[in-house]
Write a structure and sequence with these properties.
Layout lengths: L3 H10 L2 H17 L1 H4 L7 H5 L3 H34 L5 H5 L2 H26 L3 H30 L5 H21 L5 E4 L10 E4 L4 E6 L1 H11 L2 E4 L6 E2 L4 E6 L4 H9 L1 E4 L8 H15 L7 H21 L8 E7 L3 H15 L4 H17 L4 H18 L3 H18 L2
Parallel strand pairs: 1-8, 4-8
Antiparallel strand pairs: 2-6, 3-5, 3-7, 4-6
Helix pairs in contact: 2-7, 5-7, 5-8, 7-8, 9-12, 9-13, 12-13, 12-14, 13-14, 13-15, 14-16, 15-16, 15-17, 16-17
């Protein structure tokens, strides 16, 4: 798992301005490199190439790249607004962090700055004839890069902000978070057994701020425990909402104010949840998409059924890996595992509630639960519980006897699959 510093750096790298700044600096340096390379150019080469052509090329780049950058920004903003209104506001952050969109925007900004700096230095006469040749060759390379980026961006922008594309992106983010958690079910620490109580002599440590736990630096907690001969118990997993009265965890052993401060510092608390260490957040966002699709404003049960399929795939992958042995790297830190019942609650409850009046959605909920129930007997009881709850909602919401009978038959198959 990522340390706190590594995780914070990762968050910064995902921001648009970081990538755009890096490409901009690269563009400026590229424009200035001709000042150093021109000494290696043969004297008769400028005459053969006709290096004055670089002035026109740079002028075209400066004008066109500014227009393309403004167009790309407006397109991205429109896509984010569309995702907010038609999918879920929680998906916007993933779109903003998308590497393809950031690379395209950064390429356009960097090319614009490259052409502007090139024009400025050309006007000063610092390049000379040999420098103009270098600039000409580099400009041709920049044009090739721009064309390749534009071709990819043209295809990409057609799907940006669409419901299916955004849903796929959320599924990938949730799958990645699950993969990391499956590799370290307890974030690299010792797994606490279900309903395991914290020792009575352990001191509880409360949060000092409001917000959601985004990241836990378990490595820092291990170092703290080894340094002061402590045993650490994590209470608030990533995704938990905390406040100054909420317990982050507990410390068994003598703890000073400095130790308590370092313990709190290992927990990154922010205003919103993050996908990285929080697989439950991905399931919550997927269920939000289905709930919004089922609202009277959209009335799109097909999207809800698609989300049910995606969520079932994710839960199936989680079930398949749940029996693997935990890789314990930090033996002095005990961390509770994510309960599969919590994942089911996050995903199925909102969809079963909002889709109870639509027979096709209610039946697909039962089919998803049946698939998961047959996949692994350890999860059959959870699926059976959700099946009964979803059936009760559907029976109250459906008016047609035939519709209720269809859902009841689907629910019976779930109960049969759950039987030992």
């Amino acid at each position: 798992m990522f340390s706190r510093l590594h995780w914070l750096l990762l968050q910064q790298v995902r921001k648009v301005w970081v990538r755009a700044t890096a490409f901009s600096v690269l563009g400026v340096l590229t424009a200035l490199i001709a000042l150093w390379v021109k000494r290696y150019i043969p004297e008769d080469l400028p005459t053969q190439i006709g290096s004055d052509a670089v002035d026109a090329l740079l002028g075209i780049l400066a004008t066109s790249m500014l227009s393309v950058t403004i167009f790309s920004l407006s397109t991205m903003v429109s896509a984010y607004a569309s995702a907010t209104s038609n999918v879920t506001p929680r998906a916007t952050q993933l779109l903003i962090e998308d590497a393809t969109a950031q690379n395209a925007l950064a390429t356009f900004i960097g090319s614009f700055l490259y052409s502007v700096v090139g024009i400025i230095v050309l006007q000063t006469g610092l390049y000379g004839d040999a420098g103009r040749v270098v600039l000409y060759v580099v400009t041709l390379g920049v044009i090739v890069l721009i064309v390749a980026t534009l071709l990819r961006w043209t295809d990409y922008v057609l799907h940006l902000g669409r419901v299916r594309t955004t849903t796929e992106r959320i599924e990938r983010a949730a799958r990645e978070a699950m993969r990391h958690r499956q590799e370290a079910p307890s974030l690299g620490g010792e797994m606490m057994a279900e309903r395991e109580a914290v020792p009575s002599d352990a001191e509880s440590i409360e949060a000092d701020t409001f917000g959601y736990v985004q990241h836990i630096d378990v490595e820092a907690l291990q170092e703290l425990a080894e340094e002061h001969d402590l045993h650490v118990f994590v209470g608030a997993l990533p995704g938990s909402l905390v406040d100054p009265s909420a317990t982050l965890g507990a410390i068994q052993g003598a703890a000073s104010d400095d130790v308590r401060g370092r313990f709190r510092k290992a927990f990154t608390v922010a205003d919103t949840r993050s996908f990285d260490q929080d697989p439950r957040f991905g399931m919550c966002v997927l269920s939000e998409i289905a709930s919004r699709a089922l609202s009277p404003a959209l009335n799109d049960p097909g999207t809800a059924i698609d989300v049910l399929s995606r969520g079932t795939r994710l839960l199936a992958s989680w079930c398949e890996a749940s029996g693997k042995a935990a890789n314990v790297r930090f033996a002095r830190v005990r961390v509770p595992a994510i309960e599969v019942s919590d994942l089911f609650d996050d995903f199925f409850v909102p969809i079963a509630r909002d889709g109870a009046a639509l027979v096709e959605v209610a039946v697909h909920v039962q089919k998803a639960l049946e698939s998961l129930s047959r996949l692994d007997a350890r999860f059959a009881s959870v699926a059976s519980t959700h099946s009964r709850s979803a059936l009760a909602r559907a029976e109250r919401a459906l008016s047609a006897p035939d519709d209720r009978a269809r859902v009841q038959r689907a629910a019976c198959r779930v109960q049969s699959a759950a039987e030992p």
